[in-house]
Amino acid sequence: MFTKVAPSKDSSRRLQLSSLVPWCSEGMIVCKKINVLCLLQEELKIPPTVEIGTYGAAPDPPPPLSSDPSNKLSSEDEASRSFGFGTITELQNLTESGIRHIDAEEPSKRNASYSIMASLPFPSTGAEEMVVACSFLVIPYDDYNGGAYGEGGGLEVEVRRRAVLPSLHIKFLSVMVNKVFCRCALRLVEKLRPYAINGASVNMEEKFSQLTLDVIGLSLFNYNFDSLTSDSPVIDAVYTALKEAESRSTDILPYWKAHLLRKIIPRQIKAEKAVTIIRETVEELIAKCKEIVDAEGEQINGEDYVNDSDPSILRFLLATRDEVSSVQLRDHLLSMLVAGHETTGSVLTWTLYLLSKDSSALAKAQEEVDNVLGGKFPTYDDVKELKYLTRCIHESMRLYPHPPVLIRRALVADVLPGNFKINVGQDIMISVYNIHRSPQVWDGAEDFMPERFDLEGPVPNETNTNFRFIPFSGGPRKCVGDQFALLEAIIALTIFLQNLNFELVPDQKIGMTTGATIHTTNVGFFGHYYKHFLHFLNLIA
């Protein structure tokens, strides 16, 4: 998302920006209508007809929401729905005919049927998905794993969570705010200042992506990618790997699993080289850190242990002295790198976009930042007072959740609420996007209303909203870094608002596409979508 900046007569301390359009990755498919969906990956068979309904077509309101797995829907005959795949040709025809890019500006004109990956659209209100999500997201590891495009087996995920979770304690998060989040965000602000003089354009989505890469590198490995100010083979490799991971989330078949194809397809060759560079870099960082820990005889002396010189998660994990191989440790960290980078960048992009379109919300957020901080840098303790800004981010994650779809694969036969019969090996897809925008679930579902979350109430999550709000999933596979990601977004946006004013350039047609996260795109002639960028004008120091 490009930013165009120019001097202004505004004498305030904030930089003045006006924005145009955030940009998106190519080839992604928007998901808004994917309801609970079983993908039979093994047999690739489908009933002869597929029912495609209308968004929000349930004649009756959903039943009272409950976390009770026995909760059933009575408003529709759920058992009549069909699931599965046809032949490869049929599958491609069905999915291609179902694909729709959605206009982010005009929700009333959105087509009711579209699909993502190799999935097929089905009628949905969003409410039934929520009941099913409430049920199967809390199912133990032994019943479901991450699916074809998700996390690995249950034991692997559980071990990874148990290894990483203790490192994300309050003291660690507090140190991250002071030593990493604030400093990286301030570096972004300084990076933007020259554009105020030259009146040049800046790709803000790119800058947010660079910001979050720098944050995750320092937080995980104490490694400074310094992507805001420089390029390197490691940075290029990281972006290549991230792009490949997102592309795989929308590929119809996992052809990359075929060893021969990985050796002859150019995209796969490039991705393999990128992964090798990343692995070697991380392994080198692990080896160096291990040498230091061993030489110093460092060992954790409390649950809230943080090393002053190197507060990274890698240092914590090595200091625990747990019996874990370098390969396991590398895989833990790489998983967090992938999960923690693009998602937060997308949250910042869409929150900025939504605030740009709502001048009163923007003014209220800036006023809160000024009143709470008085010009000083935010600390961990300040965050709890930034209630409205935090709710703006939550509302952004409601409208544009990352990821927009949750996937689980059944390891045992099961029957979900609504009489959804699940066979072993089937993938279950829950559209978080659909739940978050369902008028059966939310009042003013398409509207940006941070006030819908009580400022004096608890921070919204899957439990206190009864699975209406699941941006971080829920249950045993809930995002282990949810508090880390939320804090990172709050601090970055706070410092951004302390220093910048911005507004959207008028008459822009903004759409969106999605893979692992939701990106933005500009609508060109004849309905085509092409890359474009969020511009900011009149940026001043």
From TrEMBL:
Keywords: Heme, Iron, Metal-binding, Monooxygenase, Oxidoreductase
Entry cofactors: heme
Any single biological process term in GO: carotenoid biosynthetic process
UniProt: heme binding residues: 479
InterPro entries hit by this protein: Cyt_P450, Cyt_P450_CS, Cyt_P450_E_grp-I, Cyt_P450_sf, Cytochrome_P450_Monoox
Top-level taxonomic group: Eukaryota
GO cellular component: chloroplast
Region of interest called Disordered, as start-end residue ranges on this chain: 54-77
One GO MF term: iron ion binding
Pfam families from the UniProt entry: p450 (PF00067)
Similarity comment: family membership: Belongs to the cytochrome P450 family.
This protein's name: Uncharacterized protein
Species of the source: Dendrobium chrysotoxum (Orchid)
